[in-house]
Design a protein that fits this description.
Structural class: alpha/beta
Oligomer: single chain
Number of strands: 11
Number of helices: 6
Shape: globular
Mean pLDDT: 93
Radius of gyration: 17 Å
Bound molecules: 6-phosphogluconic acid
Low-confidence stretches: 253-259
Strand content: 15-25%
Largest sheet: 8 strands, mixed
Distance between the termini: 23 Å
Order of helices and strands: EHEHEEHHEEEHEHEEE
């Protein structure tokens, strides 16, 4: 793993940087391929980013060319407070002019096995051959304090043949039944963006980025795009246990860039 780690003062600055990367990827994909494929995540960390994308008044994103997918979903109905799709709907989708047919949610209400099968079919409809799934222009990911990412949890099989998996996992008091995309899908993306905030993730983050490769134990280590970019946006609290040598790019404090 050869990660690019960018450190920001707090969630606000980190989210603004993520929004800028989202705009840039959207613009480039629309220009080069006429479509922008993004996979969103759930959890608390991307909420501010979704608001910033929704508030964009400069129309940097052509939503008619944008197709949104999810990297994972909790198996609850879409209007449940725990639905990742529901959260994105409330914070982002309801505020932008994205056509309904461009929104490809995981049907959590079907339960993990059926929803996983159904989503594999959806991904196939947008596949970039020889892949059975789209080559995402941007994948957003978070990480739990246990090192999970999307719904790839410690102890789950590292290798997965297909693009989706049905998962049962316990993390905090969140829904246990889930569907996740597999590392093969994430690793074929053009850009993968991790967003990590909070001191409670500092130790795990330092292990994921600095320890030996233990992908069974630290699923976030399974993410290593073959040809795409892997960028970690981290706030100062989460970065507090990282060795300086890992922070390759600019250190951004209080919004000012310093070397
Ligand atoms: C989910 C996510 C999950 C999340 C991490 C971090 O929907 O639960 O897919 O992988 O990104 O658990 O969550 P926080 O951002 O809330 O810390």
């Amino acid at each position: 793993m050869n990660p690019e780690v960018r450190v920001y003062k707090d969630l606000e600055y980190l989210s603004r940087a993520a929004a800028q990367l989202f705009f840039d990827q959207a613009e480039q994909a629309a220009h080069e391929r006429g479509r922008f494929f993004a996979a969103l995540n759930g959890g608390s960390t991307p909420m501010r980013l979704f608001q910033l994308l929704a508030e964009d008044r400069s129309r940097k994103i052509d939503w008619t060319l944008t197709h949104l997918f999810w990297g994972d979903e909790r198996c609850v109905p879409p209007n449940d407070a725990e639905s990742s799709y529901g959260q994105s709907r409330e914070l982002l989708l309801d505020h932008v002019k994205i056509p309904d047919e461009n929104v490809h949610r995981i049907l959590g209400e079907l339960g993990p096995i059926e929803a996983s099968k159904d989503y594999a079919h959806v991904l196939k409809q947008f596949a970039s051959p020889p892949l059975d799934w789209p080559c995402f222009d941007l994948v957003l990911l978070g990480m739990g304090s246990d090192g999970h990412t999307a719904s790839l949890f410690p102890g789950s099989p590292v290798e997965a043949a297909g693009p989706t998996l049905a998962i049962t996992a316990h993390y905090q008091d969140r829904p246990t039944e889930r569907v996740t995309l597999t590392p093969s899908v994430f690793n074929s993306a053009r850009m993968v963006l991790f967003m990590i905030v909070g001191e409670n993730k500092a130790l795990t983050l330092s292990k994921v980025l600095n320890d030996t490769h233990q992908p069974e134990l630290y699923p976030a280590q399974r993410i290593d795009p073959k040809d795409g970019m892997l960028i970690w946006l981290v706030d100062e609290a989460a970065a507090s246990k990282l060795p300086m040598k890992l922070i390759k790019t600019e250190r951004i404090v209080k919004g000012k860039e310093t070397k």
